Amino acid sequence: MKIINIVGARPNFMKIAPIMAEYKKSNRIEALLVHTGQHYDEKMSDLFFHQLGIPKPDVNLEVGSNSHACQTAEIMKAFEPVALEHKPDVVLVVGDVNSTIACGLVAVKLGVKLVHVEAGLRSFDRSMPEEINRVLTDAISDLLFCTEQSGVDNLRREGIPGEKIFLVGNVMIDTLLKNRAKAATSNVLSQFNLDSNGFAVLTLHRPANVDDPVTFSRILDALEIIQNDMPVIFPIHPRARKNLSSWSLGERIKKLPNLRLIEPLGYLDFLKLMSSAKLVLTDSGGIQEETTILKIPCLTLRENTERPITTQVGSNRVVGTDTDKIIETYRQVVDGGWCEPQIPSLWDGHAAERIVKILLDKL
Ligand code: UD1
Known about the structure:
The protein is of the alpha/beta class. The chain contains 17 helices and 13 strands. It folds into two domains: 2-170 and 347-362, Glycogen Phosphorylase B (Rossmann fold, 3-Layer(aba) Sandwich); 181-334, 3-Layer(aba) Sandwich (Rossmann fold). It is 48% helix and 15% strand. The strands form two sheets. Strands 3-2-1-4-5-6-7 form a seven-stranded parallel beta sheet, with helices on both faces. The chain has a six-stranded parallel beta sheet with strand order 10-9-8-11-12-13, with helices on both faces. The chain starts with a strand and ends with a helix. Uridine-diphosphate-N-acetylglucosamine binds at residues 9-11, 38-41, 44, 65, 96-98, 129-130, 205, 237-239, 242.
């Protein structure tokens, strides 16, 4: 069975790593890796391949950044000849980025079976580009692998036949568990002069937060108070950095000594940073899941989450972007109003194993 696997953006890399490793255990699978080039900076891409032992992509489409329509179209135009040349039996896509839907569409239009890993997650917020990518990719997939029960329920509600859907656990957590010990040896705390459990980590990259100066400013009002208590480490996404440099908010941040903007970190350093933090504030999806396993309180700076299991087990609080609400929840968490979460079912490091076994059985 020839499988073309697609990656494009940073959160895809930790999802594909365990699947690529698992294929090697079967002599019935020929796996190719295609990188669309959606993310291309060394710190957003190459570093992850290196640290996670992902094989060098067989093909890099090198599409780079663009508007949504152009980026999606460029990926489709560049991927179609690759699919025609290699004639895969299966295209496997992960997550919810533009590369996911673009390559998914190319595959099904060529009559190639499509497999979606991390299917069924729904924020029910169609203003999020990722929600559109999720709904559309799921609608055209032949096999759908879910990380949590809500994913299965959403897909069933949307009319996807039960025999296409599998609850397998979380490949991102496979990668976390595999790399945890290695990450423990990172010197990132001394590099930034931090005490374990004495700082907060912040990540922001969603357009709703970082493309809107009013929302960004509300979040900043909360951060100004938090950074009076403890350092807030902010590995900044290129998208947020670009915006800040063109707004006066950039000047305001420079006046907050304990809000520390740093370059994006590699996987191992970031894992160590999260594991050692007092709390994490984020608008990322994956980080809500990773903090659940690490048992670190997570405040999600969005109005919703497509990963409700993280709130049900108690690690994640969806606080939105209202300054008072962020501060109120922050105080509750640091004053002990946070209990250790349960581990979601099947988040045990064996999701990729289950996926590859099902691929071999069903296809
Ligand atoms: C994308 C995904 C998002 C995912 C995020 C992780 C979509 C719709 N969004 O958002 O779901 O959570 O990746 O980071 O697919 N840039 C660089 N260097 C890079 C990559 C991007 O400088 O290597 C800058 C460019 O200015 C670009 C901007 O970041 O315009 C945004 O990149 P893009 O890939 O469009 O979306 P992300 O915000 O990264």
